[in-house]
Amino acid sequence: ATPVGLLTGTGRGAQLGILIRGPQVLEDTRTADTILLDKTGTVTSGHLAVDSTVAFEPFSEADVLRLAGAVEAASEHPIAHAIAAAARAAVPAAAVSDGGQLPAVVGFRSAPGGGVAGTVEGRPVVAGRTGWLQENGVSPDPAMLGALGAAEDSGATAIWVAVDGEPAGIISLRDTIKPGSAAAISRLRRLGLRPILLTGDNGAVAAHVAAAVGIAAEDVFAGVLPEGKVDAVRRLQAGGATVAMAGDGVNDAPALAQADLGIAMGSGTDVAIEAADLTVMGNDLGQVATAIELSRRTLATIK
Ligand code: ADP
Ligand code: MG
Question: How much is the pLDDT for 1?
């Protein structure tokens, strides 16, 4: 399914590439008073890079990266792309004839907002958040949990890697905030919308991003699983808010559908675009503010 209408109110809509599903969407842009913003890929670039790898005895950093990279190569998540790329880059091209190749994964599984698992070189490998590790029967000890906490406190997205049922290490990744995000969020505020940051990532990263783009500390919802994103929309609606939500990921789609005004980034996944009421071309959050301004003006012209 593709959005049915092109917002052509001023001619600028078409030029800017703002797609709407129907006339009701214009009214929703007028009544929305709260906007949930997905962090990864919406407020930030979503182009993560591996920052550092920590290994626990008897595992080596090279093993942690190679085994995690092999499993993540089968996932579409931005975290997965970053880890697979770093692992490929670390394969010593001179040492092996097929330099840059990662070992194959067998029995790949993944949980949205959780992580991935599979068998590599005959060894079971699990990568992801603490809850996903526990679901797979792996329990990090207090010292390891401390290491994860330290990585997160530094503002990194940190994920576990477990091998043979034991925690093997931690991979830390960093994202960058899109240059236009802070300005876009102040425009949304001037349009009367309360911006809230919504993410499955850890609270320390979320707090760091929120502070950088001007979102209040109490308006950060972190560690939210994909189902939790829908609940967050419902809770705000139950409290009387008219909720807009901007996102780009597969994990955002149910919340985009539940929101009064679901907005997809054009650079996002097809699933998000299908679930949204309005799609903006490109990946700049400023386009979201422009879409709302333009829809409201178009509505005023019609009335
Ligand atoms: P966001 O809301 O920031 O887009 P997600 O809901 O996709 O985040 O993921 C939440 C968390 O789940 C991630 O921060 C990470 O800890 C874990 N996770 C999700 N997918 C993967 C993956 N492919 N590999 C490792 N960890 C993952
Ligand atoms: Mg996202």
Answer: 43
Q: At what angle do helices 24-31 and 286-302 cross, to 10 degrees?
A: 110
Q: What's the pTM?
A: 0.85
Domain at 49-174: CATH architecture: 3-Layer(aba) Sandwich (3.40)
Which amino acid makes up residue 299?
A: L
200 lines ligand 1 (CB under 6 A): yes
CB count in 10 Å sphere of residue 232: 20
Query: 38 an active-site residue?
Result: yes
Catalytic residue among 28, 33, 38, 51: 38
Is residue 73 classed as helix, strand or coil in its secondary structure? coil
Q: So what CATH class is 5-45+177-302?
A: alpha beta
